[in-house]
Amino acid sequence: MIQVAPILLLSLLSITFLQSGYDKIKDWKGNVSWLKGHFSGTIFANTVPLALFIILILEIFSGVLCVSGIIELFSNQTTEVGYYGAILSCITLLFLLFGQRIAKDYDGARTIVIYFIPAIIAVYLLG
What we know:
It contains five helices and no strands. The protein is mostly helical.
């Protein structure tokens, strides 16, 4: 029997990270420019492009693993790839949370936590 809850959670994570990654690629300069202001006066002030690139890679890999996990659930009803996608999603969100806290953007940090909750649930259900 196909597990609906993990598929829905992996779908949420896939959409979140693949769209975010696409946005970073599509408007790289705009993102770098905005983030330089966001992180001015922090330890990331001089490393914004590198930090953004790391986040981009994490988001793309998270999204791809989650999509692959959905395919795996449909094709052979195993959860290994989805499990690793959910774990990487949590790690990615922790990186984002760390950045928001460093920037003292507490509303942004709160938003990250909203995404973290379903990611943790996905890890639990797929583990």
